[in-house]
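Translate structure to sequence.
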């Protein structure tokens, strides 16, 4: 979250022991599924459901059955065997970013992430099925021009373990809508897998000042260069002036690596 922060306030945030640093805004609604239903999400095809963690036998539909966080997660059966399933499942959410601050900075980037788990069928054969996160950058709404697609590496959802899946990409110029999509896909030769997804997240981040998609000390050096020239792009508190307040706001972003 970008705050319109005065120097004194920023100093207090910066220097208070144990104080929380500014965090970028979470753009997804119901990203942890804690409403207990698929509010804000679209499921394609309609083969999955929000599931409450509970104790069940170690094989069968709705494994894994323990959420990564909270009480609820999204679970789906991907398969071509019995009972009939589907070779893929997707959940999608479109996000309007026109009201987000600082997206004109030119070096903003997108982080999309989730936690994924899997479970093998009752035969115990390890699965080699895939999961990935995709973000579409669009202009003129969620059915408008497709500007860019960001895709994570595919992940084998190891049985029982929640594993992170993440994509970082520059925000396409002119994008006003982002479409977050999680996809689980059955690998050829296997009959079925149960996938769990939780802790989904989509954020716009601004701390990568040199545009290499990594936030490290090189970006702080770049900040000092831009500060010396009073570059208007580092007006991080959006007050029309370039001063130490902007440095403090940036350091909060930098601390969160976003
Ligand atoms: Ca959850
Ligand atoms: Ca960087
Ligand atoms: Ca400023």
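Result:
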């Amino acid at each position: 979250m970008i705050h319109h922060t005065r120097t004194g306030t920023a100093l207090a945030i910066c220097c208070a022991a144990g104080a929380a640093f500014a965090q970028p805004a979470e753009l997804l609604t119901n990203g942890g599924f804690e409403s207990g239903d698929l509010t804000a999400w679209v499921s394609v095809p309609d083969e999955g459901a929000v599931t409450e963690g509970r104790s069940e036998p170690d094989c069968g539909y709705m494994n894994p059955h323990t959420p990564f966080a909270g009480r609820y997660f999204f679970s789906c059966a991907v398969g071509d065997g019995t009972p009939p399933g589907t070779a893929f499942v997707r959940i999608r959410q479109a996000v309007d970013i026109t009201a987000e601050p600082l997206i004109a900075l030119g070096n903003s980037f997108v982080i999309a992430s989730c936690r994924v788990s899997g479970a093998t069928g009752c035969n115990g054969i390890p699965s080699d099925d895939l999961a990935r996160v995709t973000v579409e950058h669009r202009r003129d709404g969620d059915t408008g021009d497709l500007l860019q697609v960001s895709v994570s590496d595919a992940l084998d959802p190891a049985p029982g373990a929640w594993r992170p899946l993440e994509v970082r990409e520059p925000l396409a110029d002119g994008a006003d809508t982002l479409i977050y999509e999680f996809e689980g896909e059955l690998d050829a030769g296997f009959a079925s897998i149960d996938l769990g997804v939780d802790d989904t997240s989509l954020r716009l981040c601004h701390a990568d000042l040199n545009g290499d998609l990594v936030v490290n000390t090189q970006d702080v050096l770049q900040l000092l260069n831009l500060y010396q020239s009073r570059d208007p792009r580092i007006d991080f508190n959006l007050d029309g002036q370039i001063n130490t307040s902007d440095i403090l706001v940036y350091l909060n972003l930098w601390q969160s690596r976003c």
